[in-house]
Amino acid sequence: MLLRAFFLVYNIKRNGSGIMILPDYKEAKQRTSKTVLREEYNIDKDLKSLGKGKTYYVKTYGCQMNEHDSENIKAMLEQIGFTEVDDYEKADLVLLNTCSIRENAHNKAFGFLGRLKHLKEEKKDLIIGLCGCMAQEEGVVDEILHKYKFVNFVFGTHNLHRLPYLIKDNMTTSKQVIEVYSKEGNIIEGMPVKRENNYKAFVNIIYGCDKFCTYCIVPFTRGKQRSRDKDDILKEVEELVKEGYQEVTLLGQNVNAYGKDFDYKYTMEDLLEDVAKTNIPRVRFMTSHPWDFTDKMIEVIAKYDNIMPSVHLPVQAGSDRILKLMGRRYTKESYLELFNKIKNTIPNVSISTDIIVGFPGETEEDFEETLDLAEKCKYDNAFTFIYSPRENTPAAKFEDNVTLEEKEDRLHRLNEVVNKYFLENNKKLVGKTVKVLVEGKNTNGKDGYFGYTDTNKLININTTKDYTGKIIDVKVTDAKTWSLDGEIDE
Ligand code: SF4
């Protein structure tokens, strides 16, 4: 009976004597279960020497969620005996943690797989794995099964904690192992983590997304919206405080929806307040959906000095018609109302955004609405993109009569507007003293150190004194479009 249910839920294929679990969009789209299963990560003792004497290299594409997943992946690999190397050609195991948000990220991952194919011709024992959002795509896994047979194992975003077992399966059977659950998703606590930064840490607070914006693949690749228990989050932050971390970024595809899946009332504003009370010097959060941004949340950000005055507020488009087609649940007017509320309530706040140009059917008039919005908002930073259709999303089926030439022209015109305001906003800081968390020596050929202001602006500091890991006062001496220059304010 149990086995029958298993075969019904997952898309199973036989692989010789073993089985492969392949992604299934229909399952991935379901939102039927109210319960979220919470499991503790644990591995069998006999796995701990699996990678003894072997090395690994992890290549990460995409967002901070992926970066943080790679921190878990690295820790799991080290737990089973592998050692990290910084050159993939020297590794015994190479793992690609992939992103599906745009075509470009796809192409990069397949390009890297191409290089690994050549490497494997020389190094027969090389183990190659692929995980992350691309692994959740039916088309990608199909391609790996048929064209990339040299890939040893593939696992999805819901199978992260299974990594040691999948490596073992591949090592012991020498068969391609594919395990991609397409389900609404559980929460796995207690996964080990190898943090990449000694002063700034990512903390997951919510997984998945239920918004289903029509262009976005994330609800299919990351499962339903499910919040971590507040006690688990606060315990993690408190430990980071004890270890001397200066900053945490609370992570999620839509952090503002935090707690909406609980059967009691505890939402993002409550969590932000409790995290601020741990006395971690800096709290950030990302990403926010404007639809879930509450007045109470704005008040909490304004109230606590250690919640950074920096908000990423993706708008995506300025035309109501396009916003509706995107399924974004707000209008230009309601977005501007929220934007102004944030600006007027949080002192010196910086606001950044994401904007897509060339959405299917976007007319010149629609695009001018986006330009107008960019002029009104004068963003501190903006990530601007040409629309990239993602297989299986509703927008991929929309008629797209905007030529690539038009899309490129719009992107260029939009960038001219947003860049103008990045520089204008940065120039306003010249002569002022800002708080900076110093992250280390400059790596861009300049002398001195670099860090980030409370408003999340990159600043190069002209000093020989090493303040790495400390929050210091820096006087801004010059402004560029994407960075500031400064000196220590004695
Ligand atoms: S809210 Fe963000 S992650 Fe969720 S569907 Fe929309 S764009 Fe994708």
Structure description:
It is a single chain. By secondary structure, the protein is of the alpha/beta class. It is 34% helix and 22% strand. The protein contains 14 helices and 23 strands. The mean pLDDT is 94. Bound molecules: iron/sulfur cluster. Iron/sulfur cluster (SF4) binds next to helix 7.
Q: State the major sheet.
A: 6 strands, parallel
Number of strands: 23
Structural class: alpha/beta
Number of helices: 14
List keywords for this structure.
6-stranded parallel beta sheet; 14 helices; 23 strands; alpha/beta; globular; single chain; 490 residues; binds iron/sulfur cluster
Secondary structure layout plus pairing:
Layout: H1 2-9, E1 11-15, E2 18-22, H2 25-29, E3 38-40, E4 55-60, H3 64-79, E5 83-84, E6 93-98, H4 103-122, E7 127-132, H5 138-147, E8 153-155, H6 163-173, E9 177-179, E10 187-189, E11 200-204, E12 206-207, H7 218-222, E13 226-227, H8 230-242, E14 247-251, H9 268-276, E15 282-286, H10 295-303, E16 310-312, H11 320-326, H12 332-345, E17 350-357, H13 364-377, E18 381-386, H14 404-427, E19 433-441, E20 449-453, E21 458-461, E22 471-479, E23 484-488
Parallel strand pairs: 3-10, 4-5, 4-6, 6-7, 7-8, 8-9, 11-14, 14-15, 16-17, 17-18, 21-23
Antiparallel strand pairs: 1-2, 12-13, 19-20, 19-22, 20-21, 22-23
Bound molecules: iron/sulfur cluster.
